[in-house]
Specification:
The chain is an alpha/beta fold. It is built from 14 helices and five strands. Strands 2-1-3-4-5 form a five-stranded parallel sheet, with helices on both faces. 36% of the residues are buried.
């Protein structure tokens, strides 16, 4: 027995030498690199007819990327947009993509909408997680609701919480209401390029209620985390939370509103929408843009003219760029749930109008 014990290692059962540290580091890097690649073989993506991203996985960009790959591989026309495309007030079988499938007699259209997303976040989602949307037919939705106030536009100076902050540009262009520290922004920017981080967040949203592992074990001290990983994803038809009121907006008692529309020249969300369109075109996609239909019945007369001017300006920009589009006319008032979301009959009517649009028919018949 040695006369003197080196207390620096007194509490360690095993001491790793340089070679062992190299092996351990290699194993860690292998797990980080392979886990996101191997996981889809363990967790099947069970696609249902008219599939859409489950509501509880709205922040799960790993699953969204898998949906993009699956829909693109099947050669479908991809509908991209916010909760109007996703179908916040209707089951997946009654969303716009489903109505198009019914009227066209084949499942040709895929729902790649995300409930609660906005143009600034959509740009980041497609840039970092939508790589599979390449050389495909894409219908991009333009919802002018995001330019209806400086708050919606993210151009307000006062800080407030908004959806999908990790998807928006962290440094440039500057978003005035986004006040994260430099260190947090840098961390977000680095993590966005790491598939392992997206996979880790997927586990949190799919199996741990959005919590990380330490927080989940605090809330469930007697449960085994491994048993929580069931390898079964939530249903694509789960209802939003809170449950939406699916009556027409007038029956809900929603009053007509005056919107403080942001000038398009100064609008951040309009800038991000244009950059999203440019990104899709650079990736070789055939692009069709659907503008609206906004619930003009809900807009007070003093702000309706401002909305219509912006709607015309958006159509003019699309025409100038040679992007086929439909600036949709308003639906009947009773077919809206709120300012921008149609009800089931509204989606059916909108799908019919799209299929009657010559530009849309030509878009659907052209080759990628």
């Amino acid at each position: 027995m040695p006369d003197k014990i080196d207390l620096r290692f007194g509490s360690n059962d095993v001491r790793l030498g340089p070679r062992e540290w190299v092996v351990a580091l290699a194993l860690i890097l292998a797990v980080i690199g392979l886990a996101p690649v191997v996981w889809p073989f363990l967790e099947p993506l069970r696609l249902e007819p008219d599939h859409r991203l489950p509501f509880s996985l709205g922040n799960d960009y790993y699953t969204y990327a898998r949906l993009c790959r699956a829909a693109a591989a099947r050669g479908k026309t991809l509908l991209v947009g916010d909760s109007v495309i996703w179908g916040h007030y209707v089951p997946k079988e009654e969303a716009l993509s489903a109505q198009l499938n019914k009227l066209s007699g084949a499942e040709r259209y895929a729902n790649l909408g995300v409930d609660g997303i906005h143009p600034a976040a959509m740009l980041g989602l497609l840039e970092h997680h939508g790589h599979a949307i390449r050389r495909r037919a894409v219908v991009l939705h333009c919802n002018l609701l995001w330019m209806s106030s400086r708050r919606h536009d993210l151009s307000a100076d006062k800080e407030f919480a908004f959806n999908h902050p990790t998807l928006v540009p962290q440094f440039s262009p500057r978003i005035p209401c986004y006040k994260e520290s430099f260190a947090d922004r840098l961390g977000i920017a680095i993590e966005r390029g790491m598939p392992f981080h997206a996979w880790k967040k997927h586990l949190q949203f799919a199996y741990f209620g959005g919590d990380d592992l330490p927080a989940w074990t605090m809330h469930h001290p007697y449960n085994c985390p491994l048993r929580a990983v069931t390898l079964r994803l939530p249903s694509p038809n789960e209802e939003p939370s809170p449950k939406p009121d699916t009556r027409p907006w007038t029956a809900q008692g929603i009053a007509r509103q005056g919107f403080a529309w942001v000038d398009l020249d100064a609008s951040l969300q309009w800038r991000f929408f244009r950059e999203t369109a440019d990104l899709l075109l650079r990736r070789g996609n055939r692009l069709f843009v659907l503008v609206g239909p906004f619930n003009e019945h809900m807009v007070k007369p003093d702000s309706l003219a401002a909305y219509q001017a912006r709607k015309r300006a958006v159509g003019a920009w699309l025409a100038e760029r040679g992007i086929p589009h439909l600036v949709a006319e308003p639906l009947p008032s009773e077919l809206y749930a709120d300012a921008s979301h149609p009800l089931a009959d509204g989606y059916r009517l909108l799908a019919g109008r799209l299929l009657e649009c010559a530009a849309f028919r030509h878009f659907g018949q052209a080759s990628p």
